[in-house]
TrEMBL record:
Signal peptide: none annotated. SUPFAM superfamilies: Winged helix' DNA-binding domain. It holds the Pfam family HTH_5. It comes from Sphingopyxis fribergensis. GO terms for molecular function: DNA-binding transcription factor activity. SMART domains: HTH_ARSR (SM00418). This is HTH arsR-type domain-containing protein. Residues 1-94 form the HTH arsR-type domain. PANTHER family: TRANSCRIPTIONAL REGULATORY PROTEIN.
């Protein structure tokens, strides 16, 4: 498993961060909007957003009308490596469970 995937899974380990990802899946939002929606203080939201950015899941930008505001959105293709790892892991488990089932059925 790569270090990037480790950071992504670490970022997703927190339920507030997963909820932030769900909210950003609906539409981009400011940190203040996310904090209000999640019931978090601004410093706590800032820490969560930093973890999500370090995990490669979100990006931020400034709207043309106000450079003081940051708008957060999901990063395109961010979960591709995670999806690949999950598919490989699922295939491994399916193979292992199939072998176990065959072993049990042969022993009966």
């Amino acid at each position: 498993m790569s270090a990037a995937l480790d950071r992504m899974l670490g970022a997703l380990a927190d339920p507030k961060r997963r909820r932030a990802i769900e909210l950003l899946g609906v539409r981009p939002r400011s940190a203040g909007e996310l904090a209000a929606d999640l019931g978090l203080a601004p410093p706590a939201m800032s820490r969560h957003l930093r973890a999500l950015k370090e995990g490669g899941l979100v990006k931020d930008g400034h709207p043309d009308f106000d450079a003081r505001v940051r708008i957060y959105s999901l990063k395109d293709g961010a979960t591709a490596e995670l999806k690949q790892w999950l598919a490989e892991t699922e295939a491994l488990w399916a193979h292992q469970l199939g072998a176990f089932k065959a072993h049990v059925e042969d022993g009966e």
